[in-house]
Amino acid sequence: MTQTLPSHTRPSADLRERPPARPRRSLTRACARGAIGAMAMSGLRQFTTAMGLVKKVPPEAVLERAAPRMIRRMPAGRRPAMVELVHWGYGTFGGLLFGLLPSGVRRRPWAGPAYGLAFWAVFETTIAPALGLPRRSPTTAERLALLTDHLLYGTVVGASPWPHQDERDRS
User: Is the distance from CB of 45 to CB of 19 less than 8 angstroms?
Assistant: First the structure.
């Protein structure tokens, strides 16, 4: 004789068909990749700024526009550290978003650099205008430098060996 569970204890059809949730460890790794990518970007920006290719890095311009009081209250010597922390936080969030992409996309060799390029394009076309950042005409060298650091970010986010481990977490 077969025993049937009462209807209130049986999983609903919605629960049976839902794909398994992405493990928390996988998303934590994605955040770490984003933070490391932002740190790598910061290193490249230090170089491009010192070489005079970039006049003001975007995170600094964003903070000056979005949080001018906070910037003014911060001692001048500590402002670069605050800009870096904000940038790393933004990069961490970007890594999380990359980690939420389907694994079939994340595994592609072009996915990371394309993601970095998309991140740059979203900033240029959406975030900067929404914040009312001045639309100065950057030089070709500055535009290439900012594009390059976003490609570096995407490469770091997408090239880590962790995405393959993330897939093993699901089994």
Answer: no
What letters, b where the CB count within 10 A reaches 16 and e where it falls short, cover 10-33?
eeeeeeeeeeeeeeeebbebbbbb
Return all residues near 94 (Cβ < 8 A) that are at least 6 apart: 34, 37, 38, 115, 119, 153, 157
- Cβ(140)–Cβ(115) under 8 Å? no
Residue range 137-164, pLDDT digits in tens: 678 898 899 999 999 999 999 986 654 5
Of all helices (H) and strands (E), which one includes residue 48?
A: helix 24-50
User: Are 136 and 128 spatial neighbours (Cβ–Cβ below 8 Å)?
Assistant: no
With beta carbons less than 8 A apart as the criterion, state whether 91 and 153 touch.
yes
Contact between 35 and 95 (Cβ < 8 Å): yes
What would the two tokens of residue 19 be? 């794909």
Question: Taking the CA of residue 9 as centre, how many other CA atoms within 13 Å lie in the half-sphere pointing to its CB?
Answer: 4
C-alpha span between 40 and 93 (Å, rounded): 15
pTM of the model: 0.76
